[in-house]
Amino acid sequence: MTLKSKFIIRNYTNLEDIEVIGLIKKVIELGRISETKRGKQYCFHTVMSNNIHIIAERNKSGSDVFILYKEEESDGNIIKDKK
Questions:
Q1: I need a surface site. Which of 22, 24, 38, 73 has the fewest CB within 10 A?
Q2: Residues 6+ apart with CB under 8 A from 83
Q3: CA 39 – CA 10 distance, rounded (Å)
Q4: Confidence at residue 82, expressed as pLDDT on a 0 to 100 scale
Q5: Where are the domains of the chain?
Q6: DSSP states along the chain
Q7: CB 9, CB 64: distance < 8 Å
Q8: Is 68 exposed, middle or buried, given 0-12, 13-18 or 19+ CB atoms closer than 10 A?
Q9: Residues 35-64 pLDDT 10s
Q10: Closest CA to 53 of 7, 8, 12
């Protein structure tokens, strides 16, 4: 059996895992729309309606990395929620 793909998720929000997966699913459904020297990847930066930001990167080994964080509406500060 060969590993086809690998996702790495870094969740800096207070969202439950199932919610995080749902948000990442939305980014994946858009497809690989950002272009890099390594080829196409998922959208670099997606902002959801609840001020959750999702950064998508592709690391050197080809794994997709999704980083989630919340931005405070009032002053633009990044909030890393404590669980």
A1: 73
A2: 14
A3: 22
A4: 46
A5: 17-73
A6: ------EEEEE-SS--HHHHHHHHHHHHHH-S-EEETTEEES-SEEE-TTSEEEEEEE-TTS-EEEEEEEE-TTT--EE----
A7: no
A8: buried
A9: 888 788 888 999 998 899 999 998 888 899
A10: 12
